[in-house]
Amino acid sequence: MDSSRRQSGIQQLLAAEQEAQRIVNEARNAKMARLKQAKEEADKEIAAYRAQMEAEFQRKVAQSSGDSGANVKRLELETEEKIQHLKSQAANISQDVVQMLLKHVTTVNN
């Protein structure tokens, strides 16, 4: 009986080792599945964050482009106003300048 008892003990040890291996394999597979799921979730979050940042960037680009267009229009208007102001000033004093030049040209100094 001693040998059958030993044989039974060896069989129990082998069964326990197989059970332990099965538990380890299940745990490893569960860990791999969880890592895969975590990676997929992280990829989704990264894609959502990237899309959000891209949309914000595009909004800022569009906003700054719109602002530069408005700035160009404003500068054109200001420039035109200044040109008209200078032309009106020149028209107001041009007759005086002509008279002064004629006076100096026609006056003879001895």
Automatic annotation (TrEMBL):
Keyword list, A-Z: Coiled coil, Hydrogen ion transport, Ion transport, Transport
One family name in Pfam for this protein: V-ATPase_G
Any GO CC annotation of this UniProt entry: vacuolar proton-transporting V-type ATPase, V1 domain
Transport as UniProt keyword: yes
GO molecular function, one term: proton-transporting ATPase activity, rotational mechanism
Any coiled-coil regions, as ranges: 10-59
UniProt keyword Coiled coil present: yes
Function: Subunit of the V1 complex of vacuolar(H+)-ATPase (V-ATPase), a multisubunit enzyme composed of a peripheral complex (V1) that hydrolyzes ATP and a membrane integral complex (V0) that translocates protons. V-ATPase is responsible for acidifying and maintaining the pH of intracellular compartments and in some cell types, is targeted to the plasma membrane, where it is responsible for acidifying the extracellular environment. Catalytic subunit of the peripheral V1 complex of vacuolar ATPase (V-ATPase). V-ATPase is responsible for acidifying a variety of intracellular compartments in eukaryotic cells.
Subunit structure: V-ATPase is a heteromultimeric enzyme made up of two complexes: the ATP-hydrolytic V1 complex and the proton translocation V0 complex.
Family: Belongs to the V-ATPase G subunit family.
Record protein name field: V-type proton ATPase subunit G
Species of the source: Musa acuminata subsp. malaccensis (Wild banana)
